[in-house]
User: Fold this.
Amino acid sequence: MLSRTLDGVLAQDVVAPLDVIVVPNGCSDDTAAVAAHFVERAREQGWELRVSELSEGSKTAALNHGDSLAHSDTRIYMDADVSISANTVSAVLDALDREGIHFAAPAMVPVPPESPLVRAYIDVWSQMPYVKQGGPGRGLYAVSPEGRSRWTEFPHITADDTFVRLHFDRSEALIAEEAEVEVRFASSISELIAVRGRKFRGLDELRARYPSLMEQDEPRGRVAVRTIVDNPELWLRAPVFIAVYALGKLQLRRARRRGDDSWARADSSR
Assistant:
């Protein structure tokens, strides 16, 4: 999966040289070695690709480590399991050049899974305003130097993308619709529910640690109900969406009772 991601990065139509930093964290496989294979290819393009591995398995630690190594104050953060169109980097950088824009992301294109239930969930979820306006799930976002100055280090939380997005007013965020990022989801409904529970945990962490930040985020349940009611084309698929949300909440409560703090993720999407 990382090979596909880095292939996409090195195929970008950007004229200026890029500084690409890959931070494998807590990996027991050959992730670092795979990334190292791209170093020479990047050099041939006049770009720099650095691989700096961490023993700790933590996304936020990896983000902070990558930040400490970066040369530019304009930052693009990207997950290792997404595919991007060749104009993605240039499109988000162009967006950040616009007056008053400090957060940018490409348009999201979900890769349809085989499961019809998962597809039904995605059809509804992707229409939520907090998703369409650059919210979590894309796996890639960019911030201007001024935007990056709004927080110091990434806190050790699950919902790092939501944490970042809430630092910006809607007028300061822009989706570069001409660029696309492909996002893969869980292949089964049970795996999707587990991931949904993890996302609920992340939102709860944000509410507990950053209540003033979360005041900018309208309650998701209220948004979901309004969106579904206002869009009749979603009604037939809405029960799947509602069930995943309800079971995700239930799974989170059960995990808390067990003291389970593991990071549920969609391994089938990687």
Observations:
- The first helix runs from residue 2 to 10.
- The chain has a mean pLDDT of 91.
- DSSP finds 13 helices and seven strands in the chain.
